[in-house]
Amino acid sequence: STPAAIASGLAAGARRGLLVKGGAALEAIGRVRTVAFDKTGTLTAGRPRVTDILPLAPDASERAVLGLAAAVEAGSSHPIARAILERADAEGIPSRPVRDAKAVPGKAVQATVMGWTVAVASPNHARQIAGLDDAADRLVTELEASGKTAVVVVRDGQVLGIVAVRDEPRPDAAAGIAALRAMGVDCVMLTGDNRRTGEAVAGGLGLDVRAELMPEDKLAEIAALKEIGPVAMVGDGINDAPALAAASVGIAMGGGTDAALETADAAILNERVADVAALVALSRATLGNIH
Ligand code: ADP
Ligand code: MG
């Protein structure tokens, strides 16, 4: 297409909150064969709420489980952390000092609190660092089957309790995916969350799920999809900046994180899933391609 067509395409996008970093990126979006979506913060609003607090150790109370989880999550920007901190705040639980806080991306956060080593971990990671008995396992399965994400609070290698959160799909997610498929674009969900939760969310949206992926697994999925054709990755940048960079086209959902904006080729400021389809349509119109 001509430079004038590209400039007017970029401007038309910008007016609708679709920021594209230049003509090459705009052209690439229309040629995409597959769109890979991150789940949390992309297909869902990324504003999970705490739905369940389940003490499991004999000496644990709801307040103790929530309080220790909140202390460890205080330094994390993950949506699960925000949900836990919000709930602790609502219950008037004072914040506690922690030391040596660190994140294990895709798995857990951990810190030293009141002399204990406390982790808030995915069930799979909790199985490795503490073990889950049958009762805990059953609870996790039930929570996940209803579309919730369960995290396990582990204190000095012992399971203290479970906190569950639920993150609703964005209101236009199903329509946005249907629009992409109508344009001949395949859609998949790449998530670090567990398979049951991923499928419960995806079931209503009509797309393929690849779950329980570590950040490096997301890269491998992108590489495999690229064998078939150009791939766009849509993510909010929390844990998925490398995947945004590895895709043929990286699309940041929202103003998002600085990491996402830096690595992405385009950004969707209004956080609508349907805007991914709008980007593809805009690109194809600019290219003068009718597919
Ligand atoms: P997604 O791909 O859905 O955005 P992530 O890769 O960000 O998910 O996280 C995957 C899983 O790792 C979460 O479902 C959770 O079990 C665990 N996890 C990651 N960060 C945290 C955190 N700050 N607190 C608790 N659990 C976490
Ligand atoms: Mg995410």
UniProtKB/TrEMBL annotation:
It comes from the Bacteria. It is found in: Cell membrane. Coiled coil: none annotated. Belongs to the cation transport ATPase (P-type) (TC 3.A.3) family. Type IB subfamily. This is P-type Zn(2+) transporter.
